[in-house]
What we know:
Blueprint: H1 2-9, E1 16-19, H2 26-34, E2 40-45, H3 48-57, E3 65-69, H4 75-81, E4 87-93, H5 98-101, H6 128-134, H7 137-148, H8 153-166, H9 172-190, H10 200-210, H11 213-226, E5 228-238, H12 241-254, E6 274-277, H13 287-292, E7 300-307
Parallel strand pairs: 1-2, 1-4, 2-3, 4-5
Antiparallel strand pairs: 5-7, 6-7
Helix pairs in contact: 1-2, 7-8, 7-10, 8-9, 11-12
The protein binds S-adenosylmethionine (SAM).
S-adenosylmethionine is lined by residues 20-21, 23-27, 44-47, 50, 71-73, 93, 95, 97, 120, 211, 216.
Amino acid sequence: MVNEVIEYLKPFDGGVYFDGTVGMGGHTKAILDASAPGGRVVGVDLDYNAVEAASDNLSSFGDRVKIKYGNYLNIVEILSEEGLSSVDGIVIDLGLGTHQLSSVERGFSIELGGPLDMRYDSTMGISAKEVINRFPQRELEVIFRELGEEWRAKAVAREIVKARTKEEIKDAHELSTIIKRAVAKSLKSSKVRMKIHPATKTFMALRIFVNKELDNLEAFLPVAITALKEGGVIVAISFHSLEDRIVKTVFRRYAGKGGYKAEDRWSENVELPCISILTKKPIIPNPDEVRTNRRARSAKMRAARRISHGD
Ligand SMILES: C[S@@+](CC[C@H](N)C(=O)[O-])C[C@H]1O[C@@H](n2cnc3c(N)ncnc32)[C@H](O)[C@@H]1O
């Protein structure tokens, strides 16, 4: 949704922008092009491979761009390392990048398999392998149901626990075969037809869990809004209904609908900011984009502008 991001962000010459999920650098490049010759972008990613690839892809922009390893959650510290306290625009494009989906290194892909890890930064936190092999059945069920909205969560968790008593589950392909077996058993009784791969929802739930994706997003948005200059715009693209709900709810709170929550006051030293929501309904990709990029089909984009308290 690059065009839509640019349409809302309206990058200008001399503006400074933060890309919290730089990936291969597609959005960062579009912002740099639109803000030429003097606009700048600070971009971060938790995936070292993405940081390296984006740095290569964007090297022609010289010192107009700074790509760093980091969690978007630490936006204030990351900007301050660059001598910045606020920016004219922020973008985050959540979920899995095509670069991760097409790699076998960390087992993100159902089709390709690979070692069961699923962390964007495999030096931190716990891997999907540990979750799958160590967590009690009931906890697995809750993760699959709540984060994957998988209605066969119980059957899937049961089949995983049965399989791991024989041998540790190490590979994403192995896991998808176990899930497929569990789903096939439960489909026989329900006669429901599948439109997506039977392991899609469970894989998504696991990835969201090991990367704490919902917690990161919920904590990030209030801080990010505070890091916007007045008139600055934040754009968030999500791929999961729970993510979109978080974006919608936080935006509404800061737009004065629903009141601030205690956690909005993340620092004693900042005045709580106000925003104006620019997208009454989420923007969805045009059909051409969905045709060329299947991942885009569930994308939802929301945008808001920071305003002064009197506006
Ligand atoms: C959908 S991709 C972004 C694609 C990017 N917009 C582009 O044009 O190539 C999402 C990226 O966010 C990264 N990511 C996920 N959670 C993150 C976090 N908390 N902080 C920084 N990067 C994160 C992932 O590693 C992944 O590369």
